[in-house]
Amino acid sequence: MSEKKVLFDLKGEETGVPFKKSMLITVIAAVLAVIIGSQLPLAQYGEKAGLALGFFVAIIILFLSQCFSIEVIAMVLVAGGFFLGIWEWSAFQASTATSSFLQMLCMMVVAAGATTTPIGRRIALWVLKKIGNKPIRLVLGFGIVTAFISSFISNVATLILMSSIAHAMLVAMEEKPGESKLGQVLFLLIPALSFLGGIGLISGSPGSNVFGLGLMSSFTEGKYIVDFKQFAIIMYPTMLIILVPFIFIYIKTLGLKSSDANQNLPTGYFDNLYNELGAVTGAEIRWVILLIGMVAWLLAGGHGTAVPLTIAAICLLPVVGTTPANKVWQNVPMTILFLMYMVSPMGLLWSSTGLIGAVSDLFGGMLSGFSPLVLCIIMTFLNLIMCNVLVNAGATVSFPVLMGIGIGICESMGVNPSLILLPVIVTGSCQWMVVINAASFANFSYGYYRVKDAVLPGFLVILLTSIAIPALTFLLAPIAGVPIYL
Predict the structure, then answer these.
(1) Counting beta carbons within 10 angstroms of the beta carbon of residue 276, is it exposed (0 to 12), middle (13 to 18) or buried (19 or more)?
(2) What is the full per-residue pLDDT of the chain (486 aa) written as tens digits?
(3) What sign does the CA torsion over 218, 221, 227, 230 have?
(4) Residue 485's beta-bridge partner residues?
(5) What pTM, to 2 d.p., does this model score?
(6) Which of 229, 267, 281, 298 is nearest to 120 (CA)?
(7) Among candidates 438, 354, 454, which has minimal Cα distance to 160?
C-alpha cells in the first residue's frame, strides 16, 4: 500500500526540521514585537525608529528561539526591512556593495589551505615535540600552539586539529575520558584558546572580527574604521600578553598538578608523529608564502578586501594554488556567510532610522559619566556576559545593542568609538563560561569534561580579559595611530 501524500512536511522528513508549537509561538511573538515597536513614541529620533526597534527585537526573538536557521533569519531581515519600509532596496544594494562580506569570504578561502594541507598539523607537532612530557608543560605547549595557529586560521579548524592531536596523545598516556585531569584541562583550554588566538589578527576570526568591524563601519557610514595594520599592532601583543595568565587560570582552578598523569609520553612520541607527515609538500610551502604575503601586504597598507581577494584567487589556481576549488566550500560554513551578509541590513536598521539615538539616550545616562577606559571595560564585560549567556546568538545580539549604545555615548563625549568598541568586537566569539556554542562544543564528544567544568575558569578569564584587553588597547592605540579622542 502506497504512503499517503501530504502537502506539508510536518514531520520534517524532507526539510529535516519537524514542526513544533514553539515555531508558531516564536512567529507570533516576533510579529507582536514589530506591532508594539511601531507604536512607541520615538518619532523625535526618526519616523521609522519605533518600527526599527520592534523589528530588531523580532529578529532577536527568532535568533534566541533557535527554531529557524541563521540562513532563514538573514533572509527575513533583508526582505522584512524592505517590505516594512525601513529601507529602500537601492539603499540596501548600496550598503551591501560596501559591506565586509567579500573580505570575510576571501580570508576564509585563504585559511582553508591550513586544513587541506598538512601544514597546520606540522606546525603544531613541530612545537609540541620540543616542550617535554610533564602535564603542565604539555598544557602550556598545547595552549601556546593553539593560540598561535588560531591567529592565522579559523577558530573551529584550530579546535578540531588540536583536539585530535590531544586525544591521540592522551590515549598513548593511558588517560581515560571522565577521569583524566590532564584531559579535562586540555579539552577545555583548546577551544578557549582557539577563541583567544582569534583576536590577534582580523583574519584569525573573520566570522566575528570582520562582522563586528563591518557593523561599526555600517552603523557610522564608514566614519570609524580600524584597518588590518592597526588591528594587528593593538591586538596581537594583547593576545600574547594575556596568553600565559589565561592558561594558568585553567591549570589552577581545575587543580592540575605535574604528577597528574598515568604515565609519561613514550620517548619521541611527537617526533614520530611529525616524521610520519613526511617531507614538507609544495602545497604547504605555497600556502605559507601566500599567507605571509597576504598579512605583509595588509600590514603595509594594502586594501582590506582587494588583497584577500587576490590571494584567495591564487589559492584556487592550478599549478601555484593550495586548495582544490571544488573542495574549498566544505571549509567555508554557509551559516557564517549568511551571518556576515546581515552586516549591511543590520547597519541600515540602526543608522538610517534614528534607532542609535533612541537607544543611546535610553541607556546613555547610566554610562556617560565614566572615563573612556572604564566605559570600555564595562562594555567589554557586558559583551562577554551576553555572548556566554546567549551562546550561539551572542554576538548577533550584543554587537548591535552595544554599538547602538556605545557609538552615541562616545560621540557625545568626544571619544573615538572605534577604540572603545574594538575590545567588544574581538571578544564577540569568546564562549568561555558557557561552552555550548556550536564551535566551543565541538570537542565535547571526546568525553574529557562536563559543561559545568568551564564555569569557574571561564568566568575568571572573562574578568581578566574584560580589564586586560581594554587596558592594553588604550596603551597600544597611540602606537597604532588610533586616537583616543575625536
Answers:
(1) exposed
(2) 455 667 788 888 888 888 888 899 999 999 999 999 999 999 898 899 999 999 988 988 887 787 887 788 888 988 999 999 998 888 888 777 656 677 777 887 888 777 778 888 899 999 888 887 788 989 999 999 999 999 988 788 888 889 999 999 998 888 888 889 999 999 999 999 999 999 999 888 877 888 888 888 888 877 888 889 999 999 999 999 999 999 999 999 999 988 877 677 787 888 899 999 999 999 999 999 999 999 999 999 898 889 999 999 999 998 998 888 777 766 666 666 676 667 678 777 877 888 877 877 777 677 767 889 999 999 999 999 988 877 666 777 788 888 888 888 888 888 999 999 999 999 988 889 888 776 777 788 888 998 899 999 999 999 999 999 999 999 999 999 999 888
(3) negative
(4) 415
(5) 0.81
(6) 281
(7) 438
Residue count of the chain: 486
User: What DSSP string runs through 257-274?
Assistant: -TT--SSPPPTTHHHHHH
Which position has the grid cell 568561555?
432
Burial of 10 (0-12, 13-18, 19+ CB in 10 A): exposed
Could you tell me the three cell numbers for 93?
544594494
Using CA atoms, how far apart are residues 287 and 36, in angstroms rounded to an integer? 53
Q: Is 174 left (phi over 0), alpha (psi -120 to 50) or beta?
A: left
Task: Judge whether 343 and 216 are in contact, CB under 8 Å.
Answer: no
471 burial level (CB within 10 Å; 0-12, 13-18, 19+): middle
Residues near 320 by beta carbon (within 8 Å), at least 6 away in sequence: 286, 314
Q: Which three cell numbers stand for residue 396?
A: 548577533
Helices and strands (H, E) in the chain, number of each type:
22, 0
Q: How far apart are CA 205 and CA 312, in angstroms?
A: 16
